[in-house]
Amino acid sequence: MNNLKEAIKKADNIVFLTGAGVSVPSGIPDYRSKNGLYAGMSSPEYMLSHTCLTREPEKFYQFVMENMYYPDAVPNLIHTKMAEMESKKNVTIITQNIDGLHEKAGSKKVVNFHGSLYDCYCQKCGMSVPAEDYLKSDIHSECSGIVRPDVVLYEEAIPERAIDQSLEAMRQADLIVIVGTSFRVSPFCNLTDYRNNKARVFAVNKERISLPYPFEMIENDAVKVFAEI
């Protein structure tokens, strides 16, 4: 932990790569752990697929409403510590999470690699729709089109803008910190292939992760680690 604290102190350009483990302390379950969102489900990938949205929009909407939205969740210490660093460092957060908690904590440079549940739009007319309206109905009051959250579903591609912003941040970073993710989901886990080769890389996760290049592993609860930074 002291090594990470010292590395943050020395770094000018920091990139945090965050996953579901960062939001678990805020009461949002991860996906694949024993108590995660997918536990006991037979076909969760289908429920969150472009096919399901297209063929069975009612089923998709019901699943999303029952399992994905946590509007009362608040940022935890990990989110707030990352946001606080922006006053002294150039910090970019590239997150797999779609819950908007990094923004709620005050972080300004956030790349939502898989989109955000709180950006919604009508598939028929293209108009942006407030998430508060989507939480009440997936039918657009203006044109009766189907509203959807602007998140990357199974079978959909990562937006080019998110990839471009991520690669630019990786090239500039002198410190990369992977937090709360097993770092196995592609293409998110491939971002470090494009890192500045002089950047130090740390990983903070409850379970050890494996990377094909030198890095420093902190196998611990991220809340405990960030409490000491």
TrEMBL record:
It is found in: Cytoplasm. InterPro entries: DHS-like_NAD/FAD-binding_dom, NAD-dep_sirtuin_deacylases, Sirtuin, Sirtuin_cat_small_dom_sf, Sirtuin_class_U, Ssirtuin_cat_dom. Residues 1-229 form the Deacetylase sirtuin-type domain. Its EC number is 2.3.1.286. Its main location: cytoplasm. The active site is at residue 114. It catalyses: N(6)-acetyl-L-lysyl-[protein] + NAD(+) + H2O = 2''-O-acetyl-ADP-D-ribose + nicotinamide + L-lysyl-[protein]. This is NAD-dependent protein deacetylase. The gene is cobB.
